[in-house]
Amino acid sequence: MAGKATAEDIFIWEGSDKKGAKTKGETNGKSVAMVKAELRRQGINPTRVRKKPKSLFGGAARGKKITSGDIAVFSRQLSVMMQAGVPLVQAFEIAGRGHENPNIQDLLLTIKNDLESGNTLAESLAKHPFYFDELFCNLVQAGEHAGILEDMLDKIATYKEKTEAIKNKVKKAMYYPAGIMIVAFVVTAILMIFVIPEFKSMFSSFGADLPALTQIIINISEVFTEYWYLIFGGLFAAIYVFLQANKRSVKFQHFLQRMMLKAPIFGALLHKAAIARFARTLSTMFAAGVPLVEALQSVAGAAGNVVYSTAIIRMRDDIATGQQLNITMKQQDLFPNMVVQMTAIGEEAGSIDAMLSKVADFYEAEVDDMVDSISSLMEPMIMVVLGGLIGTMVIAMYLPIFKLGEVV
Fold first, then answer.
1. Considering only CA atoms, which of 272, 271, 300 is closest in space to residue 285?
2. How far is the C-alpha of 388 from the C-alpha of 393, rounded, in Å?
3. Which domains does the chain possess?
4. Which of 98, 183, 285, 389 is the most buried (most CB within 10 A)?
């Protein structure tokens, strides 16, 4: 049994679900331990996990990793085909055979085989918890029990599309400043290592003291030139350690998520995105007829931030004791008053799903506007940061030339 694996390794697992029924499936994972942890989080008790031999999956031509965006696209495809009257098994056959990614082909055709064996769609999807989480499976199960699978698949597809759109917009806003920092560092390093030493050679023949700013820049350049491998090596090592810690340490992930919520500008964006995700998920599940306590368990898993996940679990426990949803939301001190009041109105009118859907629409629009504002703000910031760095170095290098007349 392999202990560690690459990002593309496939694992075959066997276990039992919450009801004690035996189940099995395949999923991507970094290691056996991480696959087991994820299965337990999905409510499955794994009894056996092993790496799938590459030969069973096409060797080198295995394709790209399956992303949540791929699942969103597939959800819409399945919804459209089901509404057009295509039988469920045939819909999986069409989607599987027609996809370019061998990984998705394998996943969909495996589910198709399970359906042909007599399993329900919810049971077949539950065998692949890395791609179809508890929320997805619960909605499908509710649709199957109520005989409205086509309508439920449309709701699922809409939900997945909207949550993916929010996720991509938040990523766009977060990646922009990271890109600025990388560009600024690269430009500064090039000037420090290759350009400023040329000026230093020229200034050495002046026979006069250099201005303080020029001397500071030259000293920094000497450090860059002499220890560039340590600087770059240390930077890459720090990035690698950060990424590995974020990937492998749950405590570090939780710490980072808490800190990001407190960050200026971006913290407000993440708060609004989390509220939009909460409202959209709970609205979708409540509309599907999932009981509120059970729905909140899935909503907590889909919150995307440990602060909100923890708060939603507390809300679930309070609601189980008889409290109203709006009261438990107010106690968490995370939800704006408008969200709490609209939830209260929805509870009184018996239309929580419709009211939360409106909340989700509002906050999704807020995230859109905020991302656009951040993008607009970042453009002049790029000019200021890069212009300030380069301008300072140019001025520092030309100050001695301006004073050349005094030296002569």
1. 300
2. 9
3. 1-54 (no CATH), 64-132 (1.20.81.30), 162-408 (1.20.81.30)
4. 285
How far, in Å, are 5, 13, 52, 64, 107 from residue 1 at the CA level?
11, 12, 10, 24, 22
How far apart (Å, rounded) are the C-alpha atoms in residues 202 and 209?
13
Residue pLDDT, tens place only, 187-217: 888 888 888 888 888 777 666 678 888 888 8
Contact 62/9 with Cβ under 8 angstroms?
no
- pTM (2 decimals)? 0.67
Give the Å distances, CA to CA, from 188 to 229, 236, 379, 387: 15, 16, 19, 11
Question: Which pLDDT does position 344 carry in this prediction?
Answer: 92
| Pairing outcome for strands 45-51 and 22-28 | unpaired
Question: Going by C-beta distance under 8 Å and a sequence separation of 6 or more, which residues neighbour residue 190?
Answer: none
Alpha carbon distances (Å) from 130 to 29, 134, 137, 145, 254: 9, 10, 12, 24, 20
- Token digits of residue 22: 């035996």
- N residues, the chain: 408
112 Cβ contact list (under 8 Å, min separation 6): 89, 92, 93, 96
The pLDDT score that the predictor gives to residue 63 is 60
- As a whole number of angstroms, the distance between CA 26 and CA 10 comes to 7
Per residue, the 3-state secondary structure of 169-185, as one string, reads HHHHHHHHHHHHHHHHH
Angstrom CA distances, 342 to 162, 214, 355, stand at: 21, 61, 6
Neighbours of 94 (CB within 10 A): 16
Non-local (6+) Cβ contacts of 243 within 8 A are none
